[in-house]
Each structure stands twice: as structure tokens, then as C-alpha cells.
Amino acid sequence: MKNKRNLLLAQLHQYQPYDEHEAQMLQDTILFIQKNKDCFLRSNLKGHLTASAWIVDNTFQFALLTHHQKLNKWIQLGGHADGNENMLEVALQEAKEESGLESLHIFQETIFDVDVHTIPTYQEIPEHIHFDIRFILIANRYENLIKNYESKQLAWLHLWDIHKFNSERSVMRMVRKTIKQSKF
Fold first, then answer.
1. In CATH, what is the architecture of 2-181?
2. What SS3 string covers the chain?
3. pTM for the whole structure
4. 10-residue block means of pLDDT along the chain (184 residues)?
5. Domain definitions of the chain by residue range
């Protein structure tokens, strides 16, 4: 596990955060990984690593969000590492499982966003922290979506409308990054 942890740490050290808030979450994530050998396992009830897929269409004008069943809010697709130390692989796998999309492909293998957020108590699982490593993927917006049990609904939302569904700092930061990315 140590080699993979070191690879992820190297990726995180190379990552350039968008703002001071994300810079603090990046530092918190690095410290968490350094101090927790079981950082890839959800059995660590303090917190654990998760990976998310920020899925956009090829025009960079729409993003795919899920109305998450447990959290009851619109967010990007993603989930627990469950021992898999390759965060990009986790993000891609979660995106496929939660959307049914076959057209998914990796836009860039580097980290797109880093977020640290608290997950509230749910049934027997106590409140804990997700250290989320996010990647940007591209998919065909016209392909049929197949939601799974984790989602109430899936929808392609225009970037300018996402704030109507979720205006949290974390989501809006990814919107701003996408707009900036599309102008290169």
C-alpha cells in the first residue's frame, strides 16, 4: 500500500488548487493520507478517501449530476475507494456504475479537484469525513442514462443552471473550473 500512497501523495503535491479554501482541503487530505494507513478503507470511521467523476459533455457546457439517494442533493458521481488505491480508476468505475454510460472517457489523468466534506450519520454509520479526489471525464450527453439504487435521478445540467440544483461551494468551484478549462 505504501507505494500507491506515495504515488497519490506525489500527485497531490503537484496539484495546483483553485483558491485558498481548496488549498486548505488539499493540505488536510495530504495529512490524512500520511497519518492513516487505512485511508483507502471505509472501515476507517474517522474518514476515508473517495473518488468522484465530474462528467461533462464534449462542449464543456453540460455536466452530469445525480440526485443522491442518501444525501438527498444533486452532486457529481463517485464513491468509496474500498481498498482500491488508484483514485482515477475508482472515479471511472463509479461513474460507469452510477450512470450506465459506455461513452465515458478520461479527459485528463491529473486531479481536477480536491474536496473535504462531512458525511452525516446514516443508519448505523456515524458521521465521518470524505477526502474526495476528483477527475474530469467526458461522455456523450445523448447516450441513455441508467441510474442505480444510489440515485433518485440523473440529469445533464447546463453549467449556468447548476446553481439552481446545488449552489454549494464545492460544486460551484467545479463549474468555474470547467468554464475556465473550456477556454483553452
1. Alpha-Beta Complex (3.90)
2. CHHHHHHHHHHHHHCCCCCHHHHHHHHHHHHHHHHCCCCCCCCCCCEEEEEEEEEECCCCCEEEEEEECCCCCEECEEEECCCCCCHHHHHHHHHHHHHCCCCCEECCCCCCEEEEEEECCECCECCEEEEEEEEEEECCCCCCCCCCCCEEEEEEEEHHHHHHCCCCHHHHHHHHHHHHHCCC
3. 0.93
4. 79 96 98 95 94 96 93 93 95 96 95 95 89 98 89 94 96 95 66
5. 2-181
